[in-house]
Structures are given as structure tokens and as C-alpha cells.
Amino acid sequence: MKLLQKQQTPLLRVGSLLLIGLSLSIGWGIRGNFGHQYGAAFAGCVAIIPLCVLSGREDWRKKLLYFAFFGAIGWGFGATVSYMQVIAYTDSGHFATQWYGYGCLFLIGFLWASLGVAGTALAAVAEKDALADFFKPVLFVFAAWLLLDLIEDPIASLLEPAANFDSNWSRHKNPLYWFDANYLPAFFTLLAAGVYDLQERREKNGWLLPVYGIGGALAGWGVQSLLHAIGWDVSLAHALTYPLGDPTYINPATGQPAYEASNLLNNWPQWFGDYPQAIGWLIGVVAGLTFYFLRYGKFRKGSSLIVYMAGGWLVSFLVFPVLGSLLFASHGGIRMTPPRSDDWSGIVGVFAGTMLWFRRHKYLSAATASVIGGAVGGLGFAGIAWLRQVLMVPGNPRILVARGLNPGNPEYERIVSTWANWQHQNWHSFLEQSYGFVNGIALAVGMAFLATRLPLQKEKPAVSGPGSGSGSRNWTLGVAAIFTLLVIPYINLVKNVDTWSDQSKPEIWKRVVTAADGTKETLPALWDVPYIGRLPGFGFLHLTPEWWFDITWIFLAIVFIILLNRHFRKPLAIIPRGWIGKGQLIFLLLLWIMVIGNFERALTGWGPERLLTEWVITVNAMIVSVLVLILPGDPEEEWPVQAVDSFKMLYRKAWKMTLVAVVVSSTFFLFTNRLFYQYPPYEQLDFKHIQTRFGREANWRSKPILKNGDHK
């Protein structure tokens, strides 16, 4: 705690911690329904807004929209990491696997919270002008991701027309599949940064870019041709390739090999095996373009941070699961949850790149806050998983069997029946909402560390004239407002359409189309445009349910932009003048849009088990709505700040504290869990229903992803 002690800050008051924690808990519960990066972005954003309101720092409140924008992006990164199998490891009963599981949960929680706090801290430590400079390169990245979303499936289908892949159970048949990881978004992020750099520099050497690319392609082709000519290409390919499974694994039930080695995936993209002749020149193109930007790239206005993060993703991905695993192939490689996604390695690289950029650009204060928040988040993820296990002890069948009470025994049946309702609660939702609360604490603690140590940032006087002063930043404020109140809700709530389609009347939401060969395909329904859609000659005026949702949101965005533009010219009376009031309004709008949308998503498949999620989320939303309106103090009151000259010592302390926390906590969680559950020896574990990382029945050995099977 000495690391946090400085001056008093309202962020560490009980009411503030409750508000920020509950806000992120609500977001995390909703994230569990919508999933992945977009849900996590909302969770972080909805907690960051009240943090600014309660910070006691007017300079933070004036940057509230920047906080929401960058913080939401930061919290979204960790959502790409697979974690359910890690939780299963801690339940396995296998000593090494359990210890490993608790350690990995700490790492995942650390990465998630540290990057979330890093995005928030960037908004705190950087001046407004510096933050505004980030927007153009970030928008280039968003555009690149949109382009990738449009072209990825068509390109994959072109490469492998008969693959019959989808985004779920047969995604490994996609020729672009690589460790089930998001390497393409990272690669397209670098492309976006490069395009931004070219248009920003506008230098005459731009013509050299295709020269470097073509030169690299020729060099790559030449090297591959030379290797082939001297007979080294096959040997090199074998040296750099390992199977994602154990070809020698024997099925204990049959005593025979469980699968053929040729049916296993390997550590390279699928298309490497289909188009080996293209590997050399494609790697050459990438190398040539990389050399060009290393030689001429400037990456101004914050775009260098994007390069560090995306480059870190790709480097870490190559270092750990792709190439580093060659040395540990007999142990499943350097992979966290084989055969599941290895995005964890990329996110480790994103974190490392962010820390390196912070240090090189004199933002060590933000790096320190990030590590502090990450330590709390890591303890929270592993700790809440452990707490769930402790709470599930009463009436747990596994514990009863360990004590010698087997199914059929009257005492066993009595205890199991008595505690059946307790055991069948929605414990996963408890895990998510509780961990969300701890992440809120991580956010509050990390930012409280900065609140009393960063000097107050004075508002620069506006300079008249086009493209200068505060007016030149209005467009970035507008983008941040649209992102917070329209984009984040849309990218989550649009998923409701699929849920409604699956759970509502099929004759309304679906249509069956019969092809010429007699095969039938189920497609989204087509709904007519009101009135004119049924007029003679206008039978083409109909749209799918998702398109109706999109058009409605487009209309909403147009209205929002019109009002926003009007507000910048002449403030609207409904929008408060002070930033406390603005923050309260933005928070309540975002919160209730998502709470209501989340309830609508669950309504078509409602059951009493949803009470632990939707009902608790709604009640918590009522509580935080009250807290955000009554907790803020006097906006004129200033809290004492003692600026720190150097954060080097504090940064080292934060890392030492984190390392001690992971070792002590994982050990404590392991031994107390085993004390409660009294697992049988390894040979007697139920490998059909548990997941293990190590041992002869480890998942990567016994349950690998097979080319002709379903994804796991």
C-alpha cells in the first residue's frame, strides 16, 4: 500500500470504489453476453466516465471524452485471450495443471487490466493536443479493420473454394487460420500505420515503396528457389514445423494410435501447405516493405504507438507459439491453452510494445499505473475463480466422492439433493460480474496513483484562425462522443438480431431458399419497406432484419451528428455546462442504452437462471445511477497534488510487487483448493470431463484439433 500512499484522493473513498467497481461489474456482466473486444470496450468505458467525474481533477473532467475513447480501446485488447480452459485447469485436480492455471489466470487478468489502465492513463498524462493527434491514425486503423472484415472471407474462399469453413466449428479449415489467433488485424494495423505515414509525410521518396516491395519479392523468390535447387527447402520446412498434437498418443480405451499424424494441424497458416511456391516471395514483400518504413518512416502524431503495439503483437506471436515452441514441441509448445487460441502471446507483445513506447516517450507514470492496475486485475481474476470454487464446496459431488460417498449412497443422495439448487446457480455469471467489480477496483487504484502525482494540466488559450486552438479539436471530441454513445452500443447491440432470429418465430425471421439442384439453405428473412414495398413494380424494396437495424442506427447517427454540430456552434440547453454534469449525462445514457439492450437480448430466451445476470445487472444499474448523481463533490474544490520528479523507482516497485503477488497468490490458491476438494491421484482423475495442460492425458495430446474434425 505504500506505493499508493501520497495525498488523499476521492477515487479511493468507499463510495467511489463502489461506483467504479459496480459500473465495471455491470459492463463485465453485459460483456459476457455480447463477448470479445466490443463487450470489454463497453465495460471499461462505462467505468471510466464516473472515474473522471469523481477524480477531483478538473483537467481530467475536461478530457472525459478522451478518457472514454482511449480507455475503451485499451480495455478491449484483453478480450481476445481465451480463458475458459484456464479456469478448467484450476478445477482439474492435477497438481501441476492447477498451479499453472492459477498463474495463467493471473497473467490474463494482468494483461486485461494493465492495458485497460494504460489506455486510461494515456488520456491522463498526455496533453489535449497530443491526444487529438492520435485520432487520425486510429481512424486509419478502424478503416483497415473494416476493410479486413469485408475481404477476409472472400479471399479465404478464393484460396480454398471447397474448404467449407465457418467462424465456429470449422474455422480451422480456413486457409488463413493460424493458431486461432487475430494475427490479421495486427498485420492490417501495421498496414494502416504505413498508409497514414505515407500521406502524412508526403515526401518524394514514396515511389521507393513499390521498389522495396518488388525487390523484397524477388529476393524472397530467389532465396526459396536457391534452397529448392540445393535440396534444402524440405529440410528447412521440417526444421521449422511441428505438429499441434502428439502423433504417438495412444488411446487408452483401444490401445491403438488415436489419430494419424497427417490429420494434425501445424504451426503455420493453412495456405502454406496449399501454396508453398508463394511463401518466399510473400515473405519477401513483407520484409521489403518493412525495410522501407524502417528507413524512411516517421510515424508522427501518435502513430508510432500503433506501430509498437501491432509490431509487438506479431513479434511476440512469432517468438512464442510459432518458433519458440519448436524447442518444446514434446510438451505442447509455448502455448497457454493448446489446442485453443494463442492470442495471449500477441497481447503479451501489445503490452510489451506499449510499455516500451511509454518509456521512450517519457510516460513512465502511465506505465507504472498500468502495472499497478494489472497486478490488481491479475489477483482479481485468479482470486475470483478461487472464490467461486470455495463457494461451490457445500454439496459438491466431487468432494463427496473423495470422502468415500458414491452415487447411490443414501447420504450422498441426501446431501446432493439438499444443495442441488446452490450447485446449479449461474456461477459463471457470478465469476464474470465479480471479476468485473475487481477490475473496477484495479482501474480506480491505478488512476488514483496518478491523481495525486501528476501536475495539473492548464488549459491552453485558444488561438484564433482556422485549424488552430480548441476549435481544431472539436472534431476529435465529436468522434469521441460518437464512438462512446453510438459506436460502442452499435457493435454490441447489433448482435441481438442474430439472437432474436434464432429464438423467435422462424417464419418471421428466417426463409428457406431452394437452389436449382434441390438443396435448401436457410437465410435471413426479407422485410418489406412499409407501404411502398408491396406496390406494383417495387417488389425489390425489402431488407434483412440486420439491415433494418443498421438503417435505424444510421438515422440515429445522422440526428446525433446534426445535434452535435449545433452544440459546438451554440450550446444546447439540455447539455450541462460543467463537465461533472456532462459526465453524468453521458454515463447515464450509455449505461441504460446497454442495460436495456442487454435485457432485450435475453428476453426471447428468458429463464429463471437469467436473474443472476440481467436482474442483478439492472439492480446494480439503479444503484450506480444514484451514486453518480450524489457522490461528486464541489467542482470548485481542488485536491492537493504533489508532482513526482521521477517514476523510475515506483515503476520498479510496481513490478516487484506484481511478481510477489503472482507467486504467493497462485501458491495459496492451489493448496487451499486442494485442501477443500481432496482430489484423487492422477491415474484416477476423470479425464473425460476435466482438462489438463500436462501429463500423458493433457488436452493437446488427447484432444487436438483434427483437420477433418470440429474445432474445440
Largest sheet: 2 strands, antiparallel
Strand order of the largest sheet: 1-2
Structural class: mainly alpha
How far is the N terminus from the C terminus? 42 Å
Task: Report on the architecture of this protein.
This protein is mainly alpha-helical and 712 residues long. The protein has helices at 14-34, 36-54, 58-62, 64-77, 84-90, 95-125, 128-159, 183-201, 208-229, 233-239, 270-274, 279-296, 303-323, 343-360, 364-391, 397-402, 410-418, 420-423, 427-451, 474-493, 496-503, 506-509, 545-569, 579-603, 614-630, 648-677, 699-702, and strands at residues 510-514, 520-524, 527-528, 542-543. The strands form two sheets. A two-stranded antiparallel ribbon has the order 1-2. A hairpin with a 5-residue loop joins strand 1 (510-514) and strand 2 (520-524). The chain starts with 13 loop residues before the first helix and ends in a 10-residue tail after the last helix. The relative contact order is 0.16. Mean pLDDT is 92; it is low at 463-470.
